[in-house]
Design goal:
By secondary structure, this protein is of the alpha+beta class. It contains six helices and five strands. The N and C termini lie close together (11 Å).
Amino acid sequence: MGFNVAVLRAIDSEYEDSGVFINRSYYNFVASYDLFGEESVIISVGNYLGLDLHPLVKLTYLDSLEEESEEDEIVVKQNVDELLTLVKTVAEKMQSQPNMLNEVTYKAKPFQYSMWEDYFKSGQITEDLEAVIESLTHHKKAGATDVVFGVL
């Protein structure tokens, strides 16, 4: 089973989605950190680009929030302006270096190496980052100062 990442803003105790779909492959990219930590593809790409991509791996699993009491909720709110700047920078750098994954050393399961190669070469990573930018921009225009990377 896979998950999707959505950029959400908190309104009282509810979350509002921007209506922008972010491909499920972006969740796999971000969640690679859960499997491999500092050697994951996302952090290794960030290191190669000279960027700290740790803010992108701070996820809030919304299904688990429904099962837990409010005191146990782990909601990771982040500044929308900082995220927007980071994601725009990542997207620009990736577009200017389309073959950079060939230069990056990262850890993955054997089948994932070709998956990541396809993800980058096909341009899907750029499309996903553009969707994240669109969603962040939507929330910023709506007055949000903080957002959550919610996993649905």
